[in-house]
Amino acid sequence: MKTLTRRDFGVDFGLALAAAILLPATTARADDTEVHIDNFVFQPAELKIKVGTTVTWTNRDDIPHTVVSAGKFRSKTLDTDDKFSFTFTNAGDYKYFCSLHPHMTGMIKVE
């Protein structure tokens, strides 16, 4: 069994410190989620989430879409691969739709 010296501790501590500084920190939170817009459909069409969750919509269609919940939030027109995010700070049901294609609807239920 090897006895650690102060020098060994210093090297180990230095390597750990360097790794902590050099490795990128992740900023995504476990309670963030995504909705994809694909083939004129929001997928998933309904989500149940907790207060404080950020939902990000990504347009995967070849044509523009929007994400609108009357009086709550409104995205700009999203071209292909554009994203829109909204953080839900209050409980409740949030119906939303695409203002360019009103038959496209979704629901976020926030607990």
Entry summary:
This protein starts with 5 loop residues before the first helix and ends with a strand.
Task: Kindly state the percentage of residues in helix.
Answer: 10-25%
The spatial strand order of the largest sheet comes to 2-1-4-7
Report on the biggest sheet.
4 strands, mixed
Low-confidence stretches: 22-30
Distance between the termini: 55 Å
Instruction: Kindly report the oligomeric state of this protein.
Output: single chain
Order of helices and strands: HEEEEEEEEE
Helix segment count? 1
Proportion of residues in β-strands: 35-45%
Principal-axes shape call: globular
What is the radius of gyration computed over CA atoms, rounded to a whole number of angstroms? Answer: 22 Å
Strand tally is: 9
Question: Which structural class fits the helix and strand makeup?
Answer: alpha/beta
Global mean pLDDT = 84
Helices and strands in order:
Layout: H1 6-22, E1 33-38, E2 41-43, E3 46-49, E4 54-59, E5 68-69, E6 73-74, E7 83-87, E8 92-98, E9 101-110
Parallel strand pairs: 1-4, 3-9
Antiparallel strand pairs: 1-2, 4-7, 5-6, 8-9
Structure characterization notes:
The protein is α/β, with parallel strands linked by helices and 111 residues long. The protein contains one helix and nine strands, in the order αβββββββββ. The chain has one helix at 6-22; strands spanning 33-38, 41-43, 46-49, 54-59, 68-69, 73-74, 83-87, 92-98, 101-110. It has a four-stranded mixed sheet with strand order 2-1-4-7, with no helix packed on it. Strands 3-9-8 form a three-stranded mixed sheet, with no helix packed on it. A hairpin with a 3-residue loop joins strand 5 (68-69) and strand 6. The longest helix has 17 residues, at 6-22. The termini are far apart. 16% of the residues are buried. The model is unreliable at 22-30 (pLDDT under 50).
